[in-house]
């Protein structure tokens, strides 16, 4: 399995994050099947695909939130000087999690602790991770809330999460995630529970903040249009396999993998008059084909696709895992 | 009032013959909301052992006409009153003021009179899985309305269930399964089949395709389109997704804080929004490779603490002094279109945004939002 080699991507020689052949199994189900990707410093990457594609699982694995008893993990996740995130113990993780790798969860209402005030949760992160004193932490917390666009931060510090709107809760999540200036921010569907106008506000906020800090960001998104607007590169996943990866514009303007093409053809834009989705859905883990997992629904499938896994091969600026891709246009 | 389209939902005084001339006079609209207001009283503590009762208007002066065969999208953010409007239409909530009519009769009376109202107005709920009893098989779920309304004999039930499943694109062997054994898309199809079982004339759907994968969503949208065409259904579709609205519905009604702020043909409204809020929604919808704009400042105000004058004035980029004086009413601006705005957007202001690339605002008005962020 090849990762994105450094000559393919316009970033520093050593990427911040390099995942190589990540495989994750729960019981008999192989949730991730040889996922490889890289992320440069200051880069934004979108993981896209339908439910069950393994997008959130990758984010959770990168955050060290998948227990050893829960799943078997193979492959490597290199983060900066840490050779493999999967081999870290709790002690090792406590130096990274929240400090250098932070996460914005999908449902802020559920991710924030209902028993503690916003201030309490923010201050405890600052005190524990950065060793700040009480007063210092409080001042920093106020500055952070102001930074994420919260009016009257003084009053909000003593509010409980349920007293805030969904958009406000998500802003608090972003503030907590950014509290220690992480190098890598994971944003798992940060806006899927929000109204569209609030969605635009939150995505803008995240992009502005990570750019100001020179941090990198992995977004988990299901909306291709939103991915094209917010990320430099995208990785298209299907049932735990990488189908296509590369610069957002190239891939979405000219999808080569049949699955990317299908996904894009289902996107509903204002003024769309016809949709032509394929019938059926993702097969269950029990009857996944041994080769390309998309083979059962693929219009371009060849005989060998079902049995043989197409390698993720570089082609120009992108990587494609397909024996019979769409022609270049 | 005898309008046949959304065009007519304007104050009678402002109605001109030309705007309402396109209808057949004998054809009563299916639903008609006349200045519907729905207030809730809430009690909140104001001090030790002190409480204060306050009134909250979830709907305020809503006029909407649903003619037979129409397809209308109700669009708005959370807190805009979409669900309350739905409850009023279904007779689950009585208007505090104004009238909700079904075929010219008050909805509540029609509902109380016989089962006919419940039979002809079917509902698809937002959370399809929660709307289906987990202890009933798919067959029992779909057979229930058939038996309740006495639509077929016991011996025909199997065939009818099979036919309904086929109609929504599900294999017959799914009838023996329980909802828990179905995927998200299949559960929605079962909910649609159950709604169709009573042979309704109106289908009301609350976010029926949200939270699904794009390919599943596309399949369901095509299904709903086909059903509407084949069965001549009147469709009332609540959605927050403008793409869904434009794909499925000929007309659109945009709501903000309990009021309808703009109505008209979906294509016309979305390509040239006249209300600044419609424009903000339009701009906030993700669009391939367009820069992410920040179209709307702040959040929807509390209905307990409504701004003076136009309730959108606090967030409106085009606000002027007289907007804060009193509340604008929905008034016709073009054929089939109405807007509740003192200063509907001009062609120049609209077209400045139509390409997705905002250009400088006209000199007499401030620019919308902040700076652009490109990917």
Automatic annotation (TrEMBL), chain A:
Topology of the protein relative to the lipid bilayer: Peripheral membrane protein
SUPFAM superfamilies per the UniProt record, alphabetical: P-loop containing nucleoside triphosphate hydrolases
GO MF: ATP binding
Residues in ABC transporter domain copies: 17-264
Subcellular location: Cell inner membrane
Pfam families xrefs: ABC_tran (PF00005), oligo_HPY (PF08352)
Hydrolase among keywords: no
InterPro entries membership: AAA+_ATPase, ABC_Ni/Peptide_Import, ABC_transporter-like_ATP-bd, ABC_transporter-like_CS, Oligopep_ABC_C, P-loop_NTPase
Keyword ATP-binding: yes
Keywords, in A-Z order: ATP-binding, Cell membrane, Membrane, Nucleotide-binding, Transport
Gene3D superfamilies on file: P-loop containing nucleotide triphosphate hydrolases
The family this protein is said to belong to: Belongs to the ABC transporter superfamily.
Name of the molecule in the record: ABC transporter ATP-binding protein
Species the sequence originates in: Jiella pelagia
TrEMBL record, chain B:
GO MF annotation terms: ATP binding
Pfam families from the UniProt entry: ABC_tran (PF00005), oligo_HPY (PF08352)
PROSITE patterns the UniProt entry points to: ABC_TRANSPORTER_2
Residue span, ABC transporter domain: 31-282
UniProtKB keywords: ATP-binding, Nucleotide-binding, Transport
Places the protein is found: Cell inner membrane
InterPro entries: AAA+_ATPase, ABC_transp_ATP-bind, ABC_transporter-like_ATP-bd, Oligopep_ABC_C, P-loop_NTPase
SMART domains: AAA
Chain positions covered by the region annotation Disordered: 1-21, 350-375
Keyword Transcription regulation: no
Chief localisation class: membrane
Membrane topology note: Peripheral membrane protein
Cross-referenced Gene3D superfamilies: P-loop containing nucleotide triphosphate hydrolases (3.40.50.300)
NCBIfam families to which the protein is assigned, alphabetical: oligo_HPY
Family as reported in the entry's similarity comment: Belongs to the ABC transporter superfamily.
Name under which the protein is recorded: ABC transporter ATP-binding protein
Record organism: Jiella pelagia
